Amino acid sequence: MKLKCLIIDDEPIARKLLQEYIEETDFLELAGTAVNPVKAVGLINSLKVDLIFLDINMPKMNGIEFLRSVPNLPMVIMTTAYGQYALDGFELAVIDYLVKPFSLERFLKASQKALELKSLKENKSIAEKVDADHFYIKCDRKIERVIYDELIYVEAMANYVIIYTMGAKLIAYLTIKGILEKLPAEKFIQVHKSYIVNVQRINAIEGNTLHLGDIKITMGLSFANAVMERVLKDKFIRR
């Protein structure tokens, strides 16, 4: 894995040193340089930058102002001759803070942090994709796996919920709000204060009653409009 880097620094000597350090580091690749943050904004997206080495004292806009004003920045390592800005930097979630002049060893230590963070994010993304079709829930003394597409509906009782799947009826001590927050919104919708249904399982609507195969569930008055909009939107053929 290589991190694509952008240097933002108005000092030619500082830019040259960072370029040399990046060339010495196997997992870093220099994508570009900018002499101030204003010129850097367009480069960040076009170059698909993973990591920014950002100076603080620069014309037009300083590094702290840049961090506060530009949303969704990639990872940032600050590089400056002024140690008093360290607290500001860490409050703005920078990876590390390098005080000039800094050694190659110190540069490598900061860059390694960025590499590890990038690796963690990618591994998390892979794990979420692998588990995207199911979730686990504690029922009695067992932890049960529930596949989203097999979940038909959820019914809330006094202080627990009943999860009805194609092959099982599971009881879990959760609130309906608690389980709704964990279910993917594109697949499930609350239709009553006591019911959540799998949208793909709705095969007919009769008045305020939803048919899920042989199962009939009544929509709550305060939920009906949102349910009808969600289920029928762009799919209802009118004569």
Describe the 3D structure.
The structure is a single chain. This protein is elongated. It is built from seven helices and 15 strands. The strands form four sheets. A five-stranded parallel β-sheet has the order 2-1-3-4-5, with helices on both faces. A five-stranded antiparallel β-sheet has the order 10-9-8-12-11. It has a three-stranded antiparallel β-sheet with strand order 13-14-15, with no helix packed on it. The chain has two domains: 3-130, Rossmann fold (3-Layer(aba) Sandwich), CATH 3.40.50.2300; 134-232, LytTr DNA-binding domain (OB fold (Dihydrolipoamide Acetyltransferase, E2P)), CATH 2.40.50. With 239 residues, it is of the alpha/beta class. The mean pLDDT is 87.
Spell out the key features of this protein.
five-stranded antiparallel β-sheet; five-stranded parallel β-sheet; 7 helices; 239 residues; single chain; alpha/beta; 2 domains; Rossmann fold; OB fold (Dihydrolipoamide Acetyltransferase, E2P)
What is this structure, in a nutshell?
The chain has 239 residues and is α/β, with parallel strands linked by helices. The chain has two domains: 3-130, Response regulator (Rossmann fold, 3-Layer(aba) Sandwich), CATH 3.40.50; 134-232, OB fold (Dihydrolipoamide Acetyltransferase, E2P) (Beta Barrel), CATH 2.40.50.1020.
Strand content: 25-35%
Shape descriptor reads elongated
What is the CA-based Rg, rounded? 27 Å
CATH fold-level label of the largest domain:
Rossmann fold
CATH class of the largest domain: Alpha Beta
Give average pLDDT, whole number: 87
CATH architecture label of the largest domain: 3-Layer(aba) Sandwich
What's the CATH H-level superfamily name of the largest domain? Response regulator
* Estimated helix fraction: 25-40%
Largest sheet: 5 strands, parallel
* Count of strand segments: 15
Uncertain stretches = none
Strand order of the largest sheet: 2-1-3-4-5
| Order of helical and strand elements | EHEHEHEHEHEEEEEHEEEEEH
Ends apart, CA distance between termini? 57 Å
Count of domains: 2
Structural class per helix/strand content? alpha/beta
Our count of helices gives 7
